[in-house]
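Case 370 in the screening queue. Each case pairs one protein sequence with one candidate compound; here the compound is nicotinamide-adenine-dinucleotide. For every case the pipeline is the same: read the inputs, emit a complex structure as tokens, and attach any notable structural observations.

Predict complex for case 370.
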Amino acid sequence: MPTPSNNRRDFLSVSVSAAVATGMAQGGFFSSAGGSEKKKLGVALVGLGSLSTNQIAPALQTSQHCRLAAVVTGTPAKEKQWADKYGISTDHIYNYERFDKIASDETVDIVYVVLPNSMHPEFTIRAARAGKHVLCEKPMANTAQECRQMIDACKQANRQLAIGYRCQFEPSHLKMMELARSNEIGTIKRIDAGVGFKIGEPAQWRLRQKLAGGGALMDVGIYALQACRYLTGEEPVSIIAQESKTDAVKFAEVDESIAWMMSFASGTTAYCTTSYNLNGLNQLTATGSDGFLRLDPAFGYTDANLENSRGKIELPKIDQFATEMDDFATCILENKPSKVSGQEGLKDLLAIEAIYKSINSRAVVEVERV
Ligand code: NAD
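Case 370 output:
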């Protein structure tokens, strides 16, 4: 099985432990004084690759409202490893074929889909049909049509669906959002957003169109795209995009680098770039009639750094994955919709499809509405 390069990890991660140490002291309404384990919702992780191993499983050890209850893997060797490391008994360990039996596993409330992108729809729909709430990694799916099928399946099963948009729980992003929308810098005139890294191992699934649905744009460009949407609180109306390729062998199937411009109804224009063939592109700036807000670095796991014209704005560090899961658990228990619902994933895919359409047609493309 191909594995991703370490340099993707290097781009996103710094030690999560520091964030854990400083972050997550807040108690929820369903945490008892003694922090009863019984009241935590059980999470089944589907796909035990890099993200599950290095970020999500550790975050589940510190989560206030979730616990690791089960795992689903296609790699038999991982069954024992995970059972030993996390004390999971064999009746809570599934492979992809046996997955549907999770319906009768009462310890599992949430299925967290952490597989290659093309597998997100199948496992989201199977999880919903098994009666579980679903947290699905980004990008939600390879196409907007699949996003709609996932939303419908969860709706029919009366289960909640959220997408792993961790930045929407990160204090610097939240502060930037609040300031941008509260006229702190006047009317936002432009946004500049860039995210990229140099991808390694040429055989990995991220470079296979069928599994990944696209290249840098699907994997990390989506962070830039989404940030423009949540800073403005608007959907892009039209998009023009261009792709550049310097390595036609490695990037034979997927995009290497894309630049795109998005227009919003209010008059804001966003200039975005993404790439799989450079290092250090990881910034987000909103410029208004009266000033600027900047995140640099912007999209990593722990190191977002916010500043305005007066200097750095100090904010607490948190574990983005633990906070994201805790928020989803709260939404389930309080029966309220997640702010990172399937609709958010669908809106991103509609904009991504407009970007690819613009590249192919060399024209400005209107973004389809939900
Ligand atoms: P990974 O390659 O490390 O792990 C993928 C897992 O899927 C592996 O356990 C692998 O065995 C399994 N798998 C099953 N069928 C496979 C197939 N046909 N080909 C390859 N692997 C297969 O990937 P990852 O980095 O853990 O990413 C998983 C998902 O999480 C992706 O959708 C990715 O976009 C997303 N992700 C999100 C973030 C974030 O910050 N939210 C960060 C990294 C990855």
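Case 370 observations:
- The chain has a mean pLDDT of 92.
- The radius of gyration is 20 Å.
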